[in-house]
Specification:
Blueprint: H1 2-26, E1 30-32, E2 35-37, H2 41-62
Antiparallel strand pairs: 1-2
Length: 65
């Protein structure tokens, strides 16, 4: 069960990383109420989710089968 959770988490964080990079490249707007979130925030989101995805993939490879 632990391996399943790790691989699902890694895939989820990988998808989030790709979406953040796409938002940064294509300057897709995000508005929450009256606040518009700058696309440069997506770089930080992409880096954080990339680190989490890499950590999950590494833990999955090191986990006993």
């Amino acid at each position: 069960m632990k391996n399943f959770f790790l691989i699902v988490s890694a895939i989820f964080f990988s998808i989030v990383t790709v979406l953040h990079f796409l938002r940064f490249i294509f300057h897709w707007p995000i508005t929450v109420g009256p606040i518009t979130i700058d696309s440069s925030v997506s770089i930080w989101g992409a880096l954080v989710s990339l680190i989490l995805a890499a950590g999950c993939f590494i833990a999955y490879k090191q986990a006993p089968k």
